Amino acid sequence: MAKVGISDVAARAGVSEATVSRVINRRGVVAMATRRVVEEAIRELGYERGAQSQLIVVLSPGLAQPFFGRLCELIEAALASQGFRAIVGSTTVGGLQEIDFISSTMDLGIAGAVFASASNTLVGADPTVYQLLQERKIPVVSVNGVIEGVPAPSFSTNDAVAAEFAVDHLWALGHRDIGIIVGPVGNRPSDRRLAGFIESMTSRGATDPQRLVVHQVYSVEGGMSAAETLLDRGVTAIVAASDYMALGAIRAARRRGLNVPGDLSVVGYDDSQIMEFVEPPLTTVRQPIERIAQSVATAMVHLVNRAQVPSGELLFDPELIVRASTAALRA
């Protein structure tokens, strides 16, 4: 006989799984009448309290960066509203830290794991950490990159659309020599952003857009180095794969005595909260992290409760936020 889960109790009581979770964990406000209905369903079905862990591991790189910190915060809040607690870990993408963190937390009895732009973004990543989770039948959800060989749901920003938005904006401003700074080869979001950039430029008649592509690490310094190369190649506009890279590009331009956006237009990616307050305020492509975080939490709760969740990747369209770092090409 199959073990009774929260989804079974919710169906019997005619309430949401979140309500059942609040009753079981005695957290949040639940009307007395609703509580009685849930308690009765628990008794009728023989649900075993305490049989299910409420701990979810969330792994992400660079929590010091505002974007990743905000993403984890939103996932944590969305899980909390469903009666779960998140353990957030900052790990090196694809490094041994992920394996160590998962191994140690599995002993605590975790209910699930979320890979938020972690090793799931790498092509050919070491599968050991996923094998450990599969052996324990611990469900997995990923953000911004599917996990190879693991039939799990993934929620990602549509990077091809993000590139199209950036190119379309700059092209409309008269720019034709548009360069792009992307992350290392083999980083899924970066590779997809680059493919979208090449397609967008080619469809507009640009010749050899690959000439204005530079790969670098995701940092201010990486953006500076890449921008130096692109400026030497005569670009008038730069699309960066992260806001921090964009800030590096602006710094490199200023050190050459160039004005942003007068001499060089720059578009970032992510829309970290502080980008509205830098100088100049950064034009950027905003990832819809609120919707992604909510989808991650909903999928994880369903998986923990043994409900069906479609595997594969669901793409969310980003939004272009136009500020003051882009302007029309000077005649």
From TrEMBL:
TM regions (residue ranges): none
Keywords noted in UniProt: DNA-binding, Transcription, Transcription regulation
Record bears the keyword Transcription: yes
SMART domains assigned to the protein according to its UniProt record, in alphabetical order: HTH_LACI
Ranges where the HTH lacI-type domain occurs: 4-58
One Pfam family it belongs to: Peripla_BP_3
Molecular function terms, GO-annotated: DNA-binding transcription factor activity; transcription cis-regulatory region binding
Entries under PANTHER family matching the protein: LACI-RELATED TRANSCRIPTIONAL REPRESSOR, LACTOSE OPERON REPRESSOR
UniProt protein name: LacI family DNA-binding transcriptional regulator
